[in-house]
Design goal:
This protein has two domains: about 120 residues, Aspartate Aminotransferase, domain 1; about 230 residues, 3-Layer(aba) Sandwich (Aspartate Aminotransferase, domain 2). Helix content is about 40%, strand content about 15%. Strands 3-9-8-7-6-4-5 form a seven-stranded mixed sheet, with helices on both faces. Strand 7, helix 9 and strand 8 form a beta-alpha-beta unit.
Length: about 425
């Protein structure tokens, strides 16, 4: 609070976004004046690389409106979650276009009323079969899945035990439920066991991710499952970044480890490898029926648009017939990881298409993001509160659509920004 004096004369170099997240003034809206001054100074210094409108499909290259030029220009895209290229696949686009002609542009109702379409039901059946679960429920957003499932099942007095790197939607769902939240060190089964052993009740759920969205590493699923079973804790596994990527059939990290039958709740999104929007939860039919009637982010949201469901169904069909796009994604991923390591970058323990380039200092991250942006490279620029203050980073999202030349250009830009030889 001592740093906040005159909102008309603020130097953004003296602040990080964490300062505003933690700010608490006498007036509820007071923070806006300070943040606005910070924001305007960041734009003036060309640090603000967020929120530029994109005007083409999310391919390996796309056109972006550059607020500093006041015009559009081309960027290399290492930011989108379009891992397998399905968002702009011609067969998917054609299917969506045809479906819009039949059904219109949206569901325009809640799913329990007139928003539940035949295509939605087909998608739920297809996801349940794909994930080898009895039933699935489709939500309009991935965020809404974790929010709805956890806030529905947990009650005050229950405990949600979260990997410390769990997604914000998992934290928010547990908070909304009023449950006690305990966190264990990332992927540390021994720490998880210590927490579970200290609890004196059985209404406990352990929440983990198949692929962690900021670090790209995999859940230590075998050891975590063993500990959970020992103490009778339920498991929620978020396969958002793992679906269609891991496992022989693409079902995710649970399939990769051969532990699908040990997971009570599998959740995921359609906004990554499926190239669309929405999310799902899959599990026992009785439990899915309960969630369908009580998960508030499902009951009180407008349902998924029919054309979105049709596009995802087409993706499942394409992937089932030809997985060459995944093979290309892995080829690109391994090439990028190897080249980054050879150049001396810290990419953590990533084992996936999500590749962090650790910076560790918010102010240094600003200069780096400004540099790569000016050179035409678009990546995730990840700062607090998405990651800890000491683990800020650039996040590269690989795609099957990238060429080796584009990857080499990306690395060259990064080396120049970091001033690596």
């Amino acid at each position: 609070m001592d740093k906040f004096h005159d909102p008309d004369h603020m130097n953004c170099d003296d602040f990080t976004q964490a300062d505003f997240f933690e700010y608490k003034g006498e007036d509820l809206f007071e923070v806006k004046d300070y943040f606005w001054a910070y924001y305007q100074d960041a734009i003036a210094k060309k640090y603000m690389v967020y929120g530029n409108p994109i005007s083409t499909s999310p391919g390996a290259e796309f056109r972006v409106y550059d607020r500093y030029l006041g015009a559009e220009r081309d960027f290399l895209n290492f930011c989108s979650y379009n891992y397998l290229g399905y968002s702009n696949h011609p067969d998917v686009i054609r299917t969506v276009q045809e479906t819009v002609g039949k059904y219109g542009t949206g569901a325009v109702s809640a799913p329990l009323l007139s928003g539940y379409y035949d295509l939605t039901r087909q998608l739920e059946e297809a996801i349940a079969a794909f994930k080898k679960k009895e039933e699935a429920v489709v939500f309009p957003t991935g965020y809404g899945v974790n929010l709805g499932v956890l806030s529905c099942l947990l009650k005050p007095g229950d405990t949600a035990v979260l990997d410390i790197l769990s997604h914000a939607s998992i934290y928010d769902g547990a908070r909304l439920a009023g449950a006690e939240i305990k966190v264990f060190s990332h992927n540390n089964a021994a720490h998880l066991e210590k927490i579970l052993k200290s609890l004196n009740h059985k209404r406990v759920i352990v929440c983990i991710e198949g692929v962690y969205s900021m670090d790209g590493d995999l859940a230590n699923l075998p050891e975590i499952v063993e500990v959970c079973k020992r103490y009778g804790a339920k498991i929620l596994l978020d396969e958002a970044h793992a679906s269609l990527i891991f496992g022989d059939s693409g079902r995710g990290v649970a399939e990769y480890y051969g532990l699908e039958d040990q997971i009570e709740l599998t959740v995921g999104t359609f906004s990554k490898s499926f190239g669309a929007i929405g999310g799902f939860v899959a599990g026992e039919r009785k439990l899915m029926t309960y969630l369908r009637l009580y998960a508030r982010s499902y009951v009180f949201s407008c349902a998924m648009a029919p054309h979105t469901a049709a596009g995802i169904l087409k993706v499942l069909e394409l992937f089932g017939n030809d997985k060459s796009c995944r093979e290309k994604l892995w080829e690109n991923t391994f090439y990028m990881q190897r080249k980054l390591k050879e150049a001396g970058f810290d990419i953590g323990n990533t084992a996936s298409q999500v590749i962090p380039v650790i910076v560790g200092d918010d102010r240094k991250l600003r200069e780096l993001s400004k540099s790569i942006y000016s050179k035409g490279l678009y990546t995730g620029v990840v700062t607090f509160p998405a990651v800890s203050k000491k683990r800020t980073r650039l996040r590269l999202s690989m795609s099957s659509c990238h060429t080796e030349e584009q990857i080499d250009t990306c690395i060259s830009i990064l080396k120049s920004a970091f001033e690596y030889p």
